[in-house]
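Thread: quick sanity check before group meeting

JM: Hey all, I'm pulling together slides for Thursday and realized we never actually wrote out the predicted structure for the chain we discussed last week. Dropping the sequence here so it's in one place. If anyone has concerns about the input, flag it before I start.
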Amino acid sequence: MNTPDALRAVEILDIILRDEVSHVAIGNHWYRWLCERAGIDPEATYPALVARYDAPRHKPPFNLEARSRAGFSAEELRALTESRPE
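JM (edit): ok, ran it. Output follows.
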């Protein structure tokens, strides 16, 4: 890949990252809103939902900075990095 192509690829990946952070932030906002409306703790509820619906396990590496920008709490980031994929 020549330099202009590589630079264009980086630009495209930056756009994808920006859009994904925004997408996750929107989902995070509405998840927390629904939990608040139902009077339940979103951080305690999430692992229960993962178990209940047999959701796929997250696998590293994790972009913790991007997840933080998307609204993940320090506790959620800690739980994510401590979880072990199957």
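AS: nice. The radius of gyration is 16 Å. Residues 3-82 form one domain.
JM: adding both to the slides.
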